[in-house]
Design brief:
Blueprint: E1 5-9, H1 16-25, E2 29-34, E3 47-50, H2 56-63, E4 68-71, H3 79-89, E5 93-95, H4 107-110, H5 116-127, E6 133-139, E7 141-142, H6 143-149, E8 168-172, H7 174-186, E9 194-198, E10 201-204, H8 205-214
Length: 215
C-alpha cells in the first residue's frame, strides 16, 4: 500500500521544491519540516512544522503520524539523527539525501573520499533496516540546475567545451527526481531497501549545445 503521509526536510533548497510540488500534485499529504518556518515558493497545500534539527525530541514530535520521511538536506553528518528520529516516531520509509552518483552499485565511486558521507549514511540504513525501510536514489547530474549555472551550456554567452565535448554523461531533471520520489512512495514494496536509478537523458556537451542552439 502506498505511503501517503510524507514529511520532507530541506524543502526550500535546490531540489526540495521539485519534490514537494510533485508530491502535492499527486495528492500526497506533505509536511515540511523547517528550522526557520519559511516556505517561500512552496504550494499552500502543505503543512509546515518548525523544528529544532539538533533536538531529537523536536524531530520525533514533528514526525509522529508520518509514513515516510524524505531528506533533501545536503549535510550528510545530519542524516543519522534524522534516521533515528524517524525510527523513534514510527516512520516506515526513509529516503536519504543521497541524490547523485551511484554509490549503491559502483565500488569505485564508493571508494572516492568525496562520497564518504553518503556511504556512511547507506551503511547506517542497512544496519537499521529491521527498524525502518529505505530507498536510495541515484541520479545523473541535475540538468536544469546545471544549465542555470552555465556549466553544461552557457545560455548567456560562449560555452566552454570540455575535452572534445563528445563524451556522454547522465543527466536528470529536478522534476523527474520529484516523480521518482512519488513513484517510490506509490510502490513501497518494489523499492524497499534498495537503490533506484533516475535518468532523464544521456547527453554529450556538443549534443546539449546543438539542442540549445535550435531552441
Amino acid at each position: 500500500m502506498a505511503y501517503k503521509k510524507v514529511a520532507i526536510a530541506g524543502a526550500t533548497g535546490n531540489l526540495g521544491p521539485s519534490i514537494v510540488n510533485e508530491l502535492v500534485n499527486q495528492g500526497f499529504e506533505v509536511t515540511v519540516l523547517t528550522s526557520s518556518g519559511k516556505t517561500s515558493g512552496l504550494p499552500s497545500a502543505i503543512k509546515v512544522i518548525k523544528v529544532d534539527f539538533s533536538s531529537q525530541e523536536s524531530l520525533v514530535s514533528a514526525l509522529k503520524g508520518q509514513e515516510a520521511f524524505i531528506s533533501a538536506i545536503p549535510k550528510h553528518e545530519e542524516q543519522p539523527a534524522l534516521i533515528d528520529a524517524a525510527i523513534a516516531a514510527g516512520v516506515q520509509r526513509f529516503v536519504p539525501s543521497e541524490f547523485g552518483s551511484n554509490i549503491v552499485g559502483n565500488e569505485k565511486v564508493r571508494a572516492l573520499p568525496v562520497f564518504a558521507g553518503k556511504v556512511k549514511t547507506q551503511q547506517y540504513l542497512r544496519e537499521k533496516q529491521d527498524q525502518i525501510s529505505y530507498t536510495i536514489i541515484t541520479t545523473g547530474l541535475f540538468l536544469d540546475w546545471g544549465i542555470g549555472l552555465g556549466w553544461l551550456v552557457n545560455l548567456k554567452g560562449k560555452t566552454q567545451i570540455n575535452d572534445n565535448g563528445d563524451s556522454a554523461h547522465s543527466f536528470t531533471l529536478l522534476s523527474d527526481i520529484g516523480k521518482a520520489v512519488a513513484g517510490i512512495l506509490n510502490h513501497p514494496e518494489e523499492t524497499k531497501n534498495r537503490g533506484v536509478y533516475v535518468q532523464t537523458a544521456a547527453l554529450s556537451q556538443n549534443q546539449a549545445l546543438k539542442i540549445a542552439q535550435k531552441v
